[in-house]
Amino acid sequence: MKGIVQDEYGSHEVLKLQEIEKPVVDDDGVLVRVHAAGVHAGDWLLMTGRPLLFRLGAGLRGPRKRVPGFDFAGTVEAVGKDAKEFKPGDEVFGDAAHGSCAEYVSVSEDKVALKPANLTLEQAAVVAVSGVTALRGLRDAAKVQPGQHVLVNGASGGVGSYAVQIAKALGAEVTGVCSTRNVEMVRSIGADHVIDYTREDFTKGGERYDVILDNVANHSLAECRRAIIPEGILLPNNGTSGGRWIGPLGRMAAALVLSPFVRRQGRPFYAPVRKRDLLDLKELIEAGKVTPVIDRTYLLSETAEAMGHVGEGHARGKVVITV
User: Fold this and answer.
1) Chain segment 109-166, per-residue pLDDT in tens
2) Domain for residue 58, yes or no?
3) Is the domain of 143 the same as that of 77?
4) Computed over its alpha carbons, how large is the radius of gyration of the chain?
5) Domains contained in the chain, number
6) By residue range, what is the domain housing residue 17?
7) Which of 19, 88, 287, 319 has a CA 20 to 30 Å removed from the CA of 171?
8) Around 90, how many Cα atoms within 13 Å sit in the side-chain half-sphere?
9) Are 103 and 214 contained in the same domain?
């Protein structure tokens, strides 16, 4: 089969399209013929090997898992002997953890769900990682309630575009922060108010919020906390900022240390993809409350270009690779 391979860390030029071995389905897994894969900031970080601390888990000299890609959607081709939920021909979406930038991927059954009926496979391919991050952050970590005022910093990005819609679905009044060119898009997905960060600094305005989900880290934690009511919470979720060695982990560590002692400072939240979260997102999507925002679509042979676009940090919503 054809797949994208990475043997060293670096810029998007390290990604090559090659013939590779087709994966074997595990006893408790499913083998999926991939129709589309999603690209997000985590893919770009793993490709570059930055921050360097990430290499302790991913591989010191080069990535241990050569085929990149987390998000995917496709058709089940085979199921393991202990897999009970799916059958060949089912259209599914989920998180492969690694390997979705290829014609086939083998994935555990608990990381897969049936595709939302009202989405194409291309749309479903960009739901899992960013959608679950937004859902777990707002619903579980922040415990957003109807009538609360939620600000999403980075509202036009992958996580942010889901966060705006999920906060609305939870009954919140939503303010999105984005650049000038994305104002109308953020408004179109349900934001009640939109702040153009090139013209206004939300940390210096008079408005105070119950929850701030910060996907950008273009303000200090202290500056962000000043824009929150005394009983509110700041959730840091920036994925790519920071220095060469620890990257965003420095900001996450600071938030973790401060959270027991500093009012309004929320703890960093961990949001691995779980089946029940995929099913909750599926329900929201089929109810018309959440729709993936897709910026660009690339062919599998153009994965390097797709990764480079995501790495520039200006993707509007999600980026799709069709296989």
Assistant:
1) 999 999 999 999 999 999 999 999 999 999 999 999 999 999 999 999 999 999 999 9
2) yes
3) no
4) 19
5) 2
6) 2-127+292-322
7) 319
8) 20
9) no
Strands in 173-178's sheet, in edge-to-edge order, are 193-196, 173-178, 149-153, 209-214, 228-236
Rounded to whole angstroms, how far apart are CA atoms 173 and 192? Answer: 6
CATH classification at residue 122: 3.90.180.10
Residue 279 within any structural domain of the chain: no
d(CA 177, CA 190): 13
**Which residues are within 8 A (CB) of 178 and not within 5 positions of it... i.e. 6 or more apart?**
154, 155, 156, 160, 185, 186, 194, 195, 196, 197
For residues 113 and 132, the answer to whether their CB atoms sit within 8 Å is no
Strands in the chain per DSSP E: 2-5, 16-19, 29-39, 71-79, 91-95, 104-108, 112-114, 149-153, 173-178, 193-196, 209-214, 228-236, 294-299, 318-322
Among the listed residues 192, 165, 168, the one whose alpha carbon sits nearest the alpha carbon of residue 291 = 165
Question: Model-level pTM?
Answer: 0.93
Q: Which of 242-246, 247-251, 306-310 has the lowest mean pLDDT?
A: 242-246
Q: Domain check: are 9 and 33 in the same one? A: yes
Residues 23-44, mean pLDDT to the nearest whole number: 92
Rounded Cα distance, 190 and 160, in Å: 12
- Dump pLDDT digits (tens) for 195-230: 999 999 999 988 999 999 999 989 999 999 999 999
3-state SS, 60-107, equals CCCCCCCCCCCEEEEEEEEECCCCCCCCCCCEEEEECCCCCCECEEEE
The predicted pLDDT at position 57 comes to 65
C-alpha distances out from residue 160 to 53, 151, 174, 183, 293, Å:
26, 10, 11, 13, 10
What tokens does 203 get?
A: 């940390």
Going by their DSSP bridges, the two strands 91-95 and 112-114 should be labelled as: antiparallel
Instruction: Tell whether 155 and 113 lie within a shared domain.
Output: no
- The answer for residues whose C-beta is within 8 angstroms of residue 155's C-beta and 6 or more apart is 161, 163, 164, 176, 177, 178, 182, 186, 191, 194
Smallest Cα–Cα separation from 112: which of 140, 81, 70? 70
